[in-house]
Amino acid sequence: MRILAVESSCDETAAAVVVDGRRLLSNVIASQTALHQATGGVVPEVAARAHLRALVPVIRRALADAECGWDDLDAIAATAGPGLPGALVVGLNGARAVAYARGLPFIPVDHIEGHVCANWLSSPLAARAIASGDATSSRAAASTASAATREMDEPPLPALALVVSGGHTELLLMLEHDRFERLGGTRDDAAGEAFDKVARLLGLPYPGGPPLSRLAAQATVRRLRLPRAWLGASDDFSFSGLKTAVLHVVQSAAPPPAAEIAWAFEESVADVLSKKAAHVAAREGVACLLLAGGVAANRRLRERVIERSPVPVFIPPPALCTDNAAMIAAAAFRHLDAAVPAQTPLDIAPTARRRVGRW
Ligand code: KG4
Ligand code: ZN
Known about the structure:
By secondary structure, the chain is an alpha/beta fold. Helix content is about 45%, strand content about 20%.
């Protein structure tokens, strides 16, 4: 089953062709990062127009890279939400139009579920990511990660998914391929949003996660300790207090070097996310822990989660953690029963639903 999927929920226009929800034939991403750097963040209207310009070339390129024609496709999928409304409308309706023209069934996909399903994509890259886990500093980490690769080539269920991105921070119990239960999430900023805002305070460009992480690695003094919001027994997260704490440090009379602040911030985020995820994984008795979303590309977070998890950890390679369409195809393959004729009236769903899964 070959699915062509489109993703346009934020600032990447992406298209991919994936076989059986697993094997990547192509994965094309047109990033708008440069466009949004001047404003230090995504302006929704600007993003929507850029999607409109990029969509057709990106789809053409995905088909060409996959060396497949329209007749080789079995279905078309697209992200229906959550995301920026204008951006979603362009991708969803563009993909539906193609499905209509080619007489192919159409599958609307939840973006958060897409992130989780990136863990089912197989590529030489994916296998490497699980094996090394980016965690060479800890022997425990290395052995847990390679155990995961040796014993299973795809995540066993039930699983606990920690989805950390620019728009979301969610702890989801994945009971079956299409059945999720939301255990907790952020009460204020998403983890990626916190990275982006703190990066901005430190004078780093948008998106802030990667440059902040590079700066943190350069810290020579590692003394600063920033707060952690544990929120008692709850499975929720909060990052706004941490962000304010960074602001106070930056504005203090004699602030430490920016690298030390970046390091302390990254430590705080990785500490809370990894400790909570490990605790909930043990409590729920899941078979594995799935890390997903743009912040899952963070080296320190990957390391900490692998170190602490009581169960095998699966993490997509960094390129499949950030927004892409291959993950949307992977999720669509698990929702073939949700396929509809392309002319069926369908709307976007800009806000996250309480339950990830069915449309
Ligand atoms: O999943 P994603 O591409 O888009 C959303 O669905 O939001 O996530 C983007 C977020 C941004 O906030 C970006 O700063 C963050 O992921 N990010 C990182 C890293 N790479 C991307 N945060 C920390 N460390 C990274 N290496
Ligand atoms: Zn995303």
